[in-house]
Amino acid sequence: MLGLGTEMLAALKERFAAIKVGDPKDEATLVGPLSSERALEGLLRLIEDAEAAGARIVHGGNRVDRPGFYLEPTIITDIGEDNPLYQEEAFGPVLSFYVVNTEEEAIQLANATRFGLGGYVFDADVEHAQQVATRIEAGMVYINSCFADSPSLPFGGVKNSGFGRELSELGIGEFLNRKLVTVAP
């Protein structure tokens, strides 16, 4: 990993180290608990399997020592195509970090999964970012932001990440049974 990738990884490690994990009712908390013991155990197993398959945990990867289902914010890199993490969605505070040489490689990597819930594009050139976003196979793509969900925006994925949308006007349509009635002249 050279140049910008190394700098980015170092900056991410610093940011992850500052994340407060804890009570979601505390405004200073950025990461709360997972939904269940089963969800936590599944993520810990995925992290362990990823490491056994050659990935490198550069930050976190452990259960937080407190009551509840808390996982340290985790960064994993050196994830090969044969690694289980390459094809799985880690539903929790786990960042899979890849370094690519070209935009085309980045788009291929983003689409090289059977899932497609959400994606992110960061670029100072917003128009260019929008062009890249159209090539990412996901139900939602955010540009220059993360976790910008709101009830006014539709939520949902493609591929094995779901069918249909919830929230917003588009989401309400999923609950309607529209009927066409026509009258011949």
Automatic annotation (TrEMBL):
Keyword Oxidoreductase: yes or no?
yes
Source species, domain of life:
Bacteria
| Keywords, alphabetical | Oxidoreductase
Q: GO MF annotations for this entry?
A: succinate-semialdehyde dehydrogenase (NAD+) activity
Give residue ranges for domain Aldehyde dehydrogenase. 7-181
Listed Pfam families: Aldedh (PF00171)
Full protein name: Aldehyde dehydrogenase domain-containing protein
Q: Which organism is it from?
A: Planotetraspora silvatica
Task: State the taxonomy lineage.
Answer: Bacteria, Bacillati, Actinomycetota, Actinomycetes, Streptosporangiales
